[in-house]
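Morning!

This is the sequence you dropped in the shared folder:
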Amino acid sequence: MRRDLKAAAFRVDQFKVPQIAAGPAASIDAPALAALGRACGLPLAAFREEHLRKQLRGVLAASGSGAIAGLTERVQTDPRLRERLRAAIANSVTGPLRDPRQFELLEEELLPPLLQRSGTLRVWSAGCSDGSEIFDLARLLDGAGALERSYLLGSDLLQENLDKARRAAAAKPPELRSRLRWERRDLTAGRPPSGTWSLILCRNVAIYMRSEVRDRLHAMLAEALGRGGVLMLGRSERIRDPRPLGLVPAGPHAYRRQS
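The structure's back. Tokens below.
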């Protein structure tokens, strides 16, 4: 009986995988993480360890891999597992009118001052997932009579998300499709798209990142705004001190660039 218990304990220990132990002081093995990142094409070192441990456990359990090294080998030969891992890490949760109060804030308070300006309204959905967010925003702009002078860019880390967005866009009216652009972009690389932006939506992206990566991202987004431009984060996100970034609060989880 004792031998059986010892064997069971050994199997449980193997399943937990020491490389992603749950303790608060635990650290994921850096070389193993780097190898997995190269295999799946994601900047894993930019993500919070708590998030990585949680998501990797789920993928390891589902795949039957005994450790990160085994998972790394498998994702190089199993496209479906690779896609599952990428989706788990990026955690692209979206849908039509996600967080309706934020769209009410946009429609009633944030967009009107931007629409009073002449010229092109440049909007960047940073972390656009399947495009739902930018489609919803396009409907607001269309209702305000501003779609025809808008430029709408959706960027995402995952090419598979952009493929979904393009397929969804194909079913939209031509006047909307002509305003849309898509690009793959790693927000942790620190480079925004060219030009300045009237409105940037980066909702529920930085919450999965390490604090230093998140801070660099917020600085990059602030720099990409034109004067008077607006940055909207997710409802669980905020910038602790926006002033050094040239931002002032413009509403719940929203900021306006002053300088």
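Headline: The radius of gyration is 21 Å.

More detail when I'm at my desk.
O.
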